[in-house]
Amino acid sequence: MLSEAAQGYLLTLRSMAGADARPKTSSLARRMGVSAQAASQVVARLIVEGLVAASAGRELSLTPAGQAAADTIFRRHSLLEWLLTRVVGLSWAESDDEAMRLQGAISPRVEERIAALLGDPQTCPHGNPINATAARTRPKGIALADAEPGSEVTIFRITEEAEEDAELLVYLEKAGLVPGARARVVEVSSGRDSLTIEGPRGRGTMGLRPAALIRVLPGEADPSLFHQVPEAIRRLGIAGVLDPDS
Question: Is the Cα torsion angle 58, 73, 21, 164 positive or negative in sign?
Answer without folding.
Answer: negative
